[in-house]
Amino acid sequence: MASTRVLCLFNGRAAGWSKALARTGCRNVCSSPSRLQSMSAWVIDQYGSSAVLRHTDEISIPTINFAHEVMIKVSAASLNPLDLNMRGGYGAALLNLRRDPLSVMNSFSEFPLILGRDLSGVVVDCGSGVTHFAPGDEVWAAIPPWKQGSLAEYVTLTEYEVSYKPKSLSHIEAASIPYVANTALSALVNAGGLCRETSSNKRVLITGASGGVGTFSIQLLKAWGAHVTVTCSQNAEGLVRGLGADEVVDYTAGDVAEQLERMERFDVILDNVGGDTEEWAMGLLKPWSGAKYVTLVSPLLLNTDSMGLLDGTLHAGLTLHNKAFQNITSSGVFYRWAFYAPDGPTLDEVSRLADAGKILPVVEAQFPFTQVPQAFHKLEQGHARGKTVVKVAEDDECIEATESEREVQETAQQY
Ligand SMILES: NC(=O)c1ccc[n+]([C@@H]2O[C@H](COP(=O)([O-])OP(=O)(O)OC[C@H]3O[C@@H](n4cnc5c(N)ncnc54)[C@H](OP(=O)(O)O)[C@@H]3O)[C@@H](O)[C@H]2O)c1
């Protein structure tokens, strides 16, 4: 595991200015670079391979339009398989409906599109209804897939999607966590029925445990006291054991189902691999005892892309219903699909676990903002061991970017 720790001198200064602003009652003063019209970002103007990634300094700054929005200067972002998929057009039909229901027939209205679902950064501006955050607060967030992403200098989100970044993590480290954390919690809690109070006597199997979701899920489940078995390649065994995995099955060393069948049955399976996994995994669950199979690899968005919104949703719904019905009636196990759900309050709990040293960031690689195509290339190679992070703001840029805050503070002190 290669974890990075970066000193961003700005952090302390920003916190100080934030307090000064709060003291002077300037909570809602626009401390963002409001005089600037455009920002730097990596965008795509069409779907395709890495050749479609384009850097520009001329993307409109996402200003605050609603009372509960906060504008964040991005310090670091991370990449996920979803970014690769969205670059190729995955989910476009459903996401465009969510982006703008009225212009769903207007092809290409989503461009220029900014990818990147995770961020760690600093609040620079707040809408008049924001109650939890102030300019200068260090925050992290997972960004809903229909919103503009974090491969940009600024992102605007609602305050409910944002959480205070763990104090013990650098921005680079923090950016590696929100998306996989929100995904894992959605899968394990909402679909898998697990929580801190009920996990201690549970046996959980995680397939594909060496990637982003898996490395987070192992740590969360161990923090909750579950017994965790994982599947991964042989060369990832040290990583997953280091994160707490109790039993490790090397899927490259023969029939993985056969190896797992020799073990005690599981209460919950979190499937990060998909494909034919569910064909053999259902039989590994304890029958007639409320056990659950939860997969993160569902055909919903592929269906809506290929069949259209209505047919695709109906087809996916029917598939889910049939599989769920068949499994509950034949062996009493629940079959479920899970999806990532951006959620600030959930990240608050993760932040506490990170500050308590129970969740460690697993940063496999980091790239400067100038090398976003190389970061995508890394992701495309597969075999992730944790996360790939992009450092969006250089340290001295952090400082530069807050010159406007200093001006606001100085102005405020005159009154
Ligand atoms: N539904 C949702 O909202 C949602 C949200 C997040 C993620 N996902 C999906 O969930 C999956 C996992 O996400 P992630 O971010 O963790 O992906 P990732 O970071 O790319 O990790 C995948 C891991 O699985 C390992 N792997 C590949 N084939 C395997 C196999 N047959 N058995 C065991 N391990 C295997 C890979 O390493 P090796 O190839 O070296 O073994 C890699 O470490 C992806 O398909 C992603 O698209 C869905």
From TrEMBL:
GO terms for molecular function: nucleotide binding; oxidoreductase activity; zinc ion binding. It holds the Pfam family ADH_zinc_N_2. It is found in: Mitochondrion matrix; Mitochondrion outer membrane. One of its GO terms (cellular component) is mitochondrial outer membrane. GO terms for biological process: nervous system development; ubiquinone biosynthetic process. The keyword Transit peptide applies. Pathway: Cofactor biosynthesis; ubiquinone biosynthesis. It catalyses: a 3-demethylubiquinone + NADPH + 2 H(+) = a 3-demethylubiquinol + NADP(+); 3-demethylubiquinone-10 + NADH + 2 H(+) = 3-demethylubiquinol-10 + NAD(+); 3-demethylubiquinone-10 + NADPH + 2 H(+) = 3-demethylubiquinol-10 + NADP(+); a 3-demethylubiquinone + NADH + 2 H(+) = a 3-demethylubiquinol + NAD(+). CDD domains: RTN4I1. Residues 48-390 form the Enoyl reductase (ER) domain. Keywords: Membrane, Mitochondrion, Mitochondrion outer membrane, NADP, Neurogenesis, Nucleotide-binding, Oxidoreductase, Transit peptide, Ubiquinone biosynthesis. The keyword Repeat does not apply. Belongs to the zinc-containing alcohol dehydrogenase family. Quinone oxidoreductase subfamily. This is NAD(P)H oxidoreductase RTN4IP1, mitochondrial. It comes from Fundulus heteroclitus (Killifish).
